[in-house]
Amino acid sequence: MKLTFYKYQGTGNDFVMIDNRDLKISKNDTKLVRRLCNRKFGIGADGLILLENSEDPQDDFKMVYFNADGNESSMCGNGGRCLVAFARFLGIVENKARFTAIDGPHDATVKDGIVSLKMQDVKDVSQNKDFLFLDTGSPHHVIFTENIATKDIKREGADIRYSDRYKDEGTNVNFVEGISEDSFSVRTYERGVEDETLSCGTGVTAVALAAYSSGKTNSERVKLVTQGGELFVDFKKTEDGFSDIWLSGPAEQVFKGEIIC
Ligand SMILES: N[C@@H](CCC[C@H](N)C(=O)O)C(=O)O
Hints:
The chain is about 15% helix and about 45% strand. The protein has four helices and 17 strands. The chain has helices at about 30-35, 75-90, 155-160, 200-215; strands spanning about 1-10, 15-20, 45-50, 60-65, 95-100, 105-110, 115-120, 125, 130-135, 140-145, 170-180, 185-190, 195, 220-225, 230-240, 240-250, 250-260. It has a 17-stranded mixed sheet that branches. Helix 2 (about 75-90) links the parallel strand 4 (about 60-65) and strand 5. The structure holds ligand LBFN2T5F. Ligand LBFN2T5F binds near residues 77, 78 and 201. Homodimer.
């Protein structure tokens, strides 16, 4: 079978996108997803996203996300932003969208090439001596440190991801360095890619909330500088956590193709 696909990237976090409204791709085909994401034997991407019809009549579409290892995973922030750009390209939405992902419903807007995605509220931020841990749709271990430019993110990230603390479920790991009062540089090791990616949307969201929780910023708008570009996270601190969390940045179509599978 010949499969039409699109390739998108959001600050260098890259995804294969498939319009699966006709359900031609099975969610259980781990081998196929892994091959399509493989950079030598397939198209190459950090993850693959199926755009499907949603069961919820309030939605414009549904997001089904897989990591490059072929497994369906938790929420992908950059992937969600790219999917909104894809839905706009397909003519499903214009400048506003609502869709359901594995962690629930999301609103999104598009303006001047910037896709903003509303994330789920976050209640629990666990603060430990050397790190913070929180779930922004996906689990994130956040370490504020120095000299992140010279770190071996793959090795240091894998040590934490496979440590006894996270056991089989694993975690994503973010290494963060302050730039100014309201901006931070971030490098992320991603679970399911098992390597550093150029950017992680749920990761920078976690970093912004972790920075606020630990008093490293007083701003409810934080700029995050990733290896692949800049993202912004806006939020409101509430009595019991964070709400109105918006992740914003560019999301672009890179190419369209056909692959035999
Ligand atoms: N790149 C993503 C995160 C994708 C999920 C992650 N790899 C996991 O399995 O937890 C993002 O932009 O949020």
